DNA sequence: TGAAAGCTAAACATAT
DNA sequence: AATATGTTTAGCTTTC
């Protein structure tokens, strides 16, 4: 079964070449999409024949239709690539000028060309469609999922799911839409065996990073899946570690192709040149990943520069306000809990901000890696020997990235002290600087914290003393929300013990088998110990239940309202006797007890 | 070499 | 009943 109809790639062209005034100007093309561009260059460099892609056109379709395009061997002949500083672009691989990069890339490009329809003699369909290369994409090649359709994406399923969810408007997707997203953005899976869907479901169920959310029954089968806010930094970290994530690839080099005076009135044809410039873009292609790129930018992945870039980007500026709506619920609740003090970490300009005063997320920035157990990211960056030698590592162990078994890095998310962290509380995290690298200071801050700093927190802080009871209620509600979300609001001494296993997420049994194999026949007769569903059905199905507490002693329900606000329905055991429910509704501007009934 | 991470397959249950 | 979705177990490969 193919994906349901949805906006296709034509709505989000990966590469748009803009023709203007007879000359073809080529915008900055990230390495992520580089092969797309390369594919459009004609053998022999006949510039007059260089196809142009009008904005909005589907590059995928063009790849298919431009059958007159030939391979890129001319690139090797011209030795253009060799002159580039591709060392950084290829991630962790040290490439000597005489490395086998060209050869390998040639074969890979040939594969790409063939698979994407650029070859003048495309491979038979049986080869191109029924035999996807199950091997992962070679690490020394920039990866374009729309081009390297025969290479298995170098991302784990959890990363793919994460990207899919993050790239959705509501940050929540049903399984079916996750399938569709993956199929759209990674056509490899169109020809992959159907087992990948099983893997997706398996990952959703087992991976602690993903949480099931109830949705209205009339919206089809199944539930919505969201990224657990607690683990979002972990996933982002995992994504950064992925060898060809746009962070790590685009980060190194962006390629600007300046085709000089192509089809110009001056007739200066037959000359193309590639100019490689360094860029700090750490974001995915906003055309391919509109929401994802924006949200990662909003999450501070790219840091200061990303903000600047975003401000200059058409894609981001148009929806900049929208991105402000992406309030991290956990951060919001923490802010509510801890009040304005938590929310106002020395308001300073980003450029002037002291290192380390990054609020809740700041603890995430500290490089607390175990020097003995280097992460791949650290190894990679050491290899590159570039300034970005310190990729922010949120967790000390890869096992805490986004895996099934690791405990959440709540300490990091909360600013709760890690043994290696200088601060032991969120407050201290604000009060103390860190020795973090420059590249750290803007990363992984919660944009929502800033937003609330300007609006939400000010409202709270402006409450007169007579409203302290109200504020206490809000804090209490936020506390409940946090606790329900698995975020401890206790002090550090308790935080470790307060990491409960994520309900419904088993602790790992992966790796080598620790228990004897139990035949299916025996397992089939075991009693049904299926856990109770995590989500509850609201009487009014309009809001989506985010979190609920199955405990009978706590009648808290967290729902997401249609306006993407977080609503807490709290019925204390005593008040429930009288049918009273306090309803708190939180958004990025307000935190008020909305109704009582 | 062992452990961890990730992938795949499969059985089974439940929901639509 | 068929299909989609969700859960769980198991075994494998790869990487560290």
UniProtKB/TrEMBL annotation:
Record-linked SMART domains: FH (SM00339)
Q: Write out the coiled-coil annotation as residue ranges.
A: none
- List the GO terms this entry assigns under cellular component, sorted alphabetically: nucleus
Where is the sequence biased in composition, kind Acidic residues? 428-438
Q: According to the UniProt record, which residues make up the DNA-binding region?
A: 152-229
Q: Which UniProt keywords apply?
A: DNA-binding, Nucleus, Transcription, Transcription regulation
Q: Which Gene Ontology molecular-function terms are recorded? A: cis-regulatory region sequence-specific DNA binding; DNA-binding transcription factor activity
Biased composition (Polar residues) is annotated at 537-547
InterPro entries reported for this sequence: FH_FOXN3, Fork_head_dom, FOXN2/3-like, TF_fork_head_CS_1, TF_fork_head_CS_2, WH-like_DNA-bd_sf, WH_DNA-bd_sf
Which coarse location class describes where this protein primarily resides?
Answer: nucleus
Q: Where is this region: Disordered?
A: 97-143, 419-438, 535-556
Which CDD domains does the record match to this protein? FH_FOXN3
* Sequence intervals crossing the membrane: none
Q: Low complexity compositional bias: what residue ranges?
A: 115-132
Sequence ranges assigned to domain Fork-head in this UniProt record: 152-229
What's the protein called, per UniProt? Answer: Forkhead box protein N3
């Amino acid at each position: 079964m193919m994906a349901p109809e949805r906006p296709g790639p034509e709505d989000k062209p990966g590469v748009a070449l803009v023709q203007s005034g007879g000359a073809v100007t080529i915008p900055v093309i990230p390495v992520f999409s580089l092969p797309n561009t390369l594919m459009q260059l004609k053998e022999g460099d006949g510039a007059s024949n260089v196809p142009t892609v009008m904005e909005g056109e589907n590059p995928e379709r063009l790849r298919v239709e431009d059958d007159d395009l030939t391979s890129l061997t001319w690139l090797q002949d011209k030795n253009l690539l060799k002159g580039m500083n591709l060392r950084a672009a290829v991630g962790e691989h040290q490439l000597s000028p005489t490395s086998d990069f060209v050869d390998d890339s040639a074969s890979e490009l040939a594969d790409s060309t063939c698979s994407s329809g650029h070859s003048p003699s495309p491979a038979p369909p049986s080869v191109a469609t029924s035999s996807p290369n199950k091997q992962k994409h070679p690490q020394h090649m920039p990866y374009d999922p729309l081009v390297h359709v025969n290479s298995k994406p170098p991302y784990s399923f959890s990363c793919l799911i994460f990207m899919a969810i993050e790239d959705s408007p509501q940050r929540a997707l049903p399984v079916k839409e996750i399938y569709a997203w993956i199929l759209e953005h990674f056509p490899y899976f169109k020809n992959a065996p159907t087992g990948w869907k099983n893997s997706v479901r398996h990952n959703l169920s087992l991976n602690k990073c993903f949480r099931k959310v109830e949705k209205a029954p009339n919206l089809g089968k199944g539930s919505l899946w969201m990224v657990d806010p607690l683990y979002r930094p972990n996933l982002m970290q995992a994504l950064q570690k992925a060898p060809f994530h746009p962070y790590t690839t685009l980060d190194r080099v962006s390629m600007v192709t300046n085709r000089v005076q192509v089809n110009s009135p001056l007739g200066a044809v037959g000359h193309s040149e590639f100019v490689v410039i360094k860029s700090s873009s750490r974001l995915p292609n906003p055309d391919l990943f509109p929401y994802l790129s924006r949200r990662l930018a909003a999450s501070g992945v790219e840091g200061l520069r990303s903000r600047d870039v975003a401000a200059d980007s058409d894609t981001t500026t148009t929806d900049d306000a929208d991105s402000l709506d992406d309030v991290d619920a956990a951060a919001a609740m923490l802010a509510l809990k801890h009040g304005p003090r938590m929310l106002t970490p020395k308001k300073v300009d980003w450029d002037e901000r002291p290192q380390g005063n990054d609020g809740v997320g700041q603890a995430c920035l500290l490089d607390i890696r175990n020097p003995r157990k280097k992460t791949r990211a650290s190894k990679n960056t050491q290899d590159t020997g570039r300034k970005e030698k310190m990729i922010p590592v949120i967790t000390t162990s890869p096992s805490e990235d986004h895996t099934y078994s690791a405990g959440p890095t709540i300490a990091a998310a909360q600013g709760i002290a890690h043994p290696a962290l200088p601060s032991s509380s969120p407050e201290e995290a604000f009060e103390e600087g860190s020795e973090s690298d420059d590249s750290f200071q803007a990363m992984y801050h919660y944009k929502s914290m800033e937003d609330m700093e300007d609006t939400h927190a000010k409202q709270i802080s402006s409450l007169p003393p007579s409203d302290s009871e109200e504020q206490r209620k809000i804090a209490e509600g936020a506390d409940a929300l946090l606790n329900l979300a698995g975020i401890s609001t206790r002090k550090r001494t308790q935080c470790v013990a307060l990491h409960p296993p994520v309900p419904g997420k088993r602790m790992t049994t992966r790796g080598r088998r620790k228990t004897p194999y139990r035949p299916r026949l025996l397992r089939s007769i075991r009693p049904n110990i299926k856990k109770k569903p995590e989500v509850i059905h609201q009487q009014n199905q309009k809001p989506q239940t985010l979190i609920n507490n199955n405990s009978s002693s706590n009648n808290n329900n967290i729902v997401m309202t249609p306006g993407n606000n977080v609503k807490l329905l709290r019925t204390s055991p005593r008040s429930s006797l009288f049918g009273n429910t306090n309803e708190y509704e939180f958004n990025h501007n307000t935190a008020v007890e909305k109704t009582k009934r």
